[in-house]
Amino acid sequence: MLSSIIKWAIARRWLVILGTIILTIWIFRTIIQMPLDVFPSFAPPQVEIQTEAPGLAPEELESLVTLPIESAINGTPGVTAVRSSSAAGISVVKVIFNWGTEIYQARQLVTERLQQAQSKLPEGVETPQISPTSSPIGTVLQYAFTSEKTSLMEVRRIVDWQVTNRLLAVGGVSQIVAYGGDNRQYQVLVDPAKLRAFNVTLEDVEQAASAANVNAPGGYLITPDREKLIRGIGRIESIEELQQSVITARNGTPVKISDIADVQIGAAIKRGDGTFNGQKAVIVMINKQPQADTPTVTRAIEAAMSEIKAGLPKDIKVTPTFRQENYIDSSIENVREALIEGSIIVAIILIPFLMNWRNLAICLTALPLSLLVGVLLLNWVGQGLNTMTLGGLAVAIGSAVDDAIVDAENVYRNLRENK
């Protein structure tokens, strides 16, 4: 059979060359559309549920929050395992599905089950949130924001309100995680002695502070020729406005927040911090969506970050600390080097021993064509290009070189003997 194939190819060599050119063009078009990633999908579909409960200890979270959520998730179709962890103030439940489960279907099933667990959670516990969909190794870029003059509180505010919103608009980005710096807060520091003096409770102060930052609808004022919207603007815009908020009245005299507390802008309690080269910094991690092409997403993020830098204060430095595409570029470079070295080895062996340019051309053509066909087979089985598949292709060049030399030499020898 192999002999028949070789004879057919020799007899119709121009047809083989034309078919090779068409196949090469088709494979190149396919490669352009294949996603590039750093690693293949090595983990089954997973859905992570996070629930915050400020003030609760891990033991309380385990029994009051984590266990009801686990009980509601158990029995979901396609679930193979449910894992959880409880820490101070936060519960994390990870739901693992069977291989092949569509991730959005898995998220829908988990959402339906969470509705059953919602009524079992105690008061004060926030609504369980499903983490955004991301790749198992989804961090494509990481930046460090540092400054010599601007405070880290202001840097963090800029990151939360400007940088995060802009980067989330980039196609392929699923999640932005920022840590480090100081979270800005309006802090009401109550004096217990003044509370007793004015006969005011801490709950009264809390309600007054909350009520001082609310806009209220008032309906419509309808006249014969127009309709006006009525509303009460109550949101505070400065510390002074919050200080003048009324808690209650004593003998017709209003008791204000400034009478019993100091109001200031301060930093929230830290649960972690970020540094870069020994200097405190705000770290921003950017995660991509599953199946998104890493180089395409990376370049889009870098273009958006260039636009963001133009609007930042001049003393804020933005330094990339991690770039996933570099690993992919290294893998592509390894394949390229292996292909060049393999071609040189073929030329060195064939030229002095066979002295036939046709054999040399066939062998040098077989090397890249073998790699292209291998990439096409990867696409047919649903695999993308990543560091592992590219590394495997680089290793396979050794076998391709051996086959090309042995086959070409044997065909050439038999043709010469028959002639």
Q: How would you portray this structure in words?
A:
This protein starts with a helix and ends with a helix. The relative contact order is 0.13. It has helices at 2-11, 13-33, 58-73, 103-118, 152-168, 192-198, 202-211, 239-243, 257-260, 294-310, 325-354, 357-380, 387-418; strands at residues 46-52, 79-87, 90-97, 129-130, 139-147, 173-179, 184-190, 216-222, 227-232, 246-250, 253-256, 261-267, 275-276, 279-280, 282-288, 316-323. The chain has three domains: 2-38 and 328-418, Multidrug efflux transporter AcrB transmembrane domain (Multidrug efflux transporter AcrB transmembrane fold, Up-down Bundle), CATH 1.20.1640; 42-134, Alpha-Beta Plaits (2-Layer Sandwich); 184-267, Multidrug efflux transporter AcrB TolC docking domain, DN and DC subdomains (2-Layer Sandwich). Strand 8 (216-222) and strand 9 (227-232) form a beta hairpin. The mean pLDDT is 83. The chain is of the alpha+beta class. The chain has a four-stranded antiparallel beta sheet. It has a four-stranded antiparallel beta sheet with strand order 6-15-5-16. Helices cover 50% and strands 23% of the residues.
Number of domains: 3
Unreliably modeled segments: none
Q: Any guess at the CATH architecture of the largest domain?
A: Up-down Bundle
Measured between the Cα atoms of the first and last residue, the distance is 22 Å
Tell me the structural class.
alpha+beta
Succession of helices and strands? HHEHEEHEEHEEHHEEHEEHEEEEHEHHH
Radius of gyration: 33 Å
Q: Can you tell me the CATH class of the largest domain?
A: Mainly Alpha
What name is given to the CATH topology of the largest domain? Multidrug efflux transporter AcrB transmembrane fold
What is the approximate shape? elongated
**Sheet with most strands: strand arrangement:** 2-3-1-4
Mean pLDDT: 83
